[in-house]
Specification:
The structure holds 2 protein chains of 2 kinds. Chain A is α/β, with parallel strands linked by helices. Chain A is about 35% helix and about 30% strand. Chain A has a 6-stranded mixed sheet, sandwiched between helices. In chain A, strand 7, helix 7 and strand 8 form a beta-alpha-beta unit. Chain B has one domain: ABC transporter involved in vitamin B12 uptake, BtuC. Chain B contains 11 helices and 4 strands, in the order H-H-H-H-E-E-E-H-H-H-H-E-H-H-H. In chain B, strand 2 and strand 3 form a beta hairpin. The longest helix of chain B is centred in the first third of the chain and has 30 residues. The radius of gyration of chain B is 19 Å and the shape is globular. In chain B, about 45% of the residues are buried. The chains are: A alpha/beta, B mainly alpha. At the A-B interface, helix 2 and helix 3 of A face helix 6 and helix 7 of B.
């Protein structure tokens, strides 16, 4: 399996605050990798640095063997890296279908209809609501829209930031079912979660983040069994 | 009949305000800044059209095209040189820069074309007489309203249907998320300035066709009134800019006719204040609390 994403000792600052300290990790083609950690550990900051919204002071982010540390965010998307941001950040005043079209912004317009059909097949709820203004969707539907929107760009790597946030347990199950499904269909996934239990249950490998540094790593099963992870993140 | 004629001249004046207000409202909607230099782009459009007709002897319609091209380039240039470097700066810094650009344009015009007013030849002349001559409508009035209508329809469908229009709406809502879609936010903002400035050139030509005296300060007052119209209709809203512009034109025209010419501007702004007291987001604006 080739390395699709390689993050090599990045350091990210918010002004004087050293938010991410020498973080390195990698994602291989076909894997689900998860970054878990408490609120404020720096998980979202790492994803935003990979997608180019934030910049690392030192270190390198390589995507498909190409240094993207200084590439503009919108160009990174063209290379096949999509992010479902924290809080979904769908375009609330646009319709469901327009949101999906925005997801296909980097794609040739001729293929958009086929891609819409693909996303609607995976998310039948979205098809029912295609003409609806996205702001009127429920939280779960909005999360599905955010995921569908990211799939429209045919990502080689899909980064999901807290997809379970703010959702009822039954919807969390559903979202993770979709993540498994997308993975089965061949999408490589980097998942950031506070819900460590769910994240570890789907992940091939995992990294545990604490105050900006990676303190543990291993396979999903190893970490789920580890004492320190259980105490800190799995409630005993 | 008199009332009808004031009303028509109000709608036509309002159409010009609406075209200018679009530039303010689109730029505000997408770049979240008030481009106070917008009014002076109108003035530049007027001068360019004047020069093309007077010095090059070309027909009026061609001068409009040239003015649009020059103003588009000017808009992109202003955005790239003055506003783009301030993308992360506090909004007050951008506002002050915009005022600076406004003075820069006015003084450049003073340097190039001098302080004495130029007499602009309207691009269309003549008038239609109706009801046995009791109602006279000038062709400029008709052309202005028609152009405003075409722009309204064209721009609305551009924003709602086209790829770039949708990208503009996406940027207006969430620039970070728009980037994650692969949208080049800088280019989108630049396109917005280009469209707004091209419209300003059209407004400049129409404005000078109404009041043919052209000075470096010609754009300021209509600019401020159009900005008022944009706020009146709900800043950031394109239908709001049209509604606000046309209402403002009608109020101004009727106030001049029936109350007082000197007080017309005071009445205009009084109406604005009352509307904003009742509807702080303007007539069609949505009140969105600022995220802190």
């Amino acid at each position: 399996m080739s390395e699709i994403l390689k993050v090599d000792s990045i350091n990210v600052y918010y002004g004087a605050i050293h938010a991410i300290k020498d973080v390195s990790f990698s994602v291989h083609e076909g894997e689900i990798v998860t970054l878990i950690g408490a609120n404020g550990a720096g998980k979202s900051t790492i994803l935003q640095t990979v997608s180019g919204l934030l910049r690392s002071k030192t270190g390198v982010v390589r995507f498909c063997d190409e240094d993207i540390s200084h590439t503009a965010a919108y160009k990174i998307v063209e290379k096949g890296l999509a992010q479902v941001p924290e809080g979904r950040r769908i375009f609330l005043q646009m319709t469901v279908e327009e949101n999906l079209e925005m997801g296909a912004y980097t794609q040739a317009p001729s293929g958009v209809d086929a891609d819409l059909a693909m996303v609607y097949e995976q998310f039948p709820r979205l098809k029912e609501r295609r003409r609806q203004i996205a702001g009127t969707l429920s939280g779960g539907e909005q999360q599905m829209l955010a995921m569908g929107r990211a799939l429209m760009s045919h990502p080689r790597l899909l980064m999901l930031d807290e997809p379970s946030m703010g959702l009822a347990p039954i919807l969390v199950e559903q979202i993770f079912e979709i993540i498994r499904d997308m993975h089965k269909k061949g999408t490589t996934i980097l998942l950031v979660e506070q819900n460590a239990q769910m994240a570890l249950s789907v992940a091939d490998r995992a990294y545990v983040l604490e105050t900006g540094s990676i303190i543990l790593s291993g396979t999903g099963a190893e970490l789920a069994a580890s004492d320190s992870v259980r105490k800190a993140y799995l409630g005993g | 009949m008199e009332f009808l004629s004031y009303l028509i001249s109000g709608i036509s004046l309002g159409s010009i305000y609406a075209i200018i207000a679009l530039g303010y409202t689109m730029v505000y909607g997408i770049a979240k800044m008030l481009n106070f230099a917008h009014g002076d782009v109108i003035m530049v459009g007027g001068y360019i059209s004047f020069c093309v007709v007077t010095y090059l002897g070309l027909p009026g319609w061609l001068s409009v095209v040239v003015a649009m091209l020059v103003c588009t380039a000017l808009g992109i240039l202003i955005e790239g040189l003055a506003y783009k470097p301030l993308r992360q700066a506090p909004s007050l810094a951008v506002l002050i820069t915009a005022i600076g650009v406004s003075y820069f344009l006015q003084n450049s015009a003073l340097l190039i074309w001098g302080a004495s007013p130029k007499v602009y030849t309207p691009i269309v002349s003549g008038q239609i007489e109706m009801f046995g001559g009791s109602l006279k409508i000038s062709w400029v009035t008709v052309v202005t309203v028609v152009i405003c209508f075409i722009i309204a329809v064209g721009l609305t469908s551009f924003i709602s249907k086209s790829r770039m229009g949708k990208a503009m709406r996406a940027c207006s809502e969430d620039k970070g998320a728009a980037q994650l879609m692969g949208i080049n936010v800088n280019r989108t903002i630049s396109t917005t300035f280009a469209i707004g400035s091209a419209l300003a050139a059209v407004a400049g030509v129409l404005l000078c066709s109404f009041s043919p005296s052209l000075m470096p300060t010609t754009g300021s007052m209509p600019g401020i009134k159009a900005f008022t119209a944009a706020v009146f209709g709900g800043i950031g809203s394109i239908p709001g800019a049209f509604l606000g512009g046309i209402l403002l034109g009608i109020i101004e025209s009727l106030a001049k006719a029936y109350i007082s010419t000197q007080l017309s501007n005071a009445i205009l702004f009084a109406v604005l204040i009352i509307v904003l007291l009742v509807r702080p987001a303007g007539l069609l604006g949505k009140y969105v609390p600022e995220k802190v």
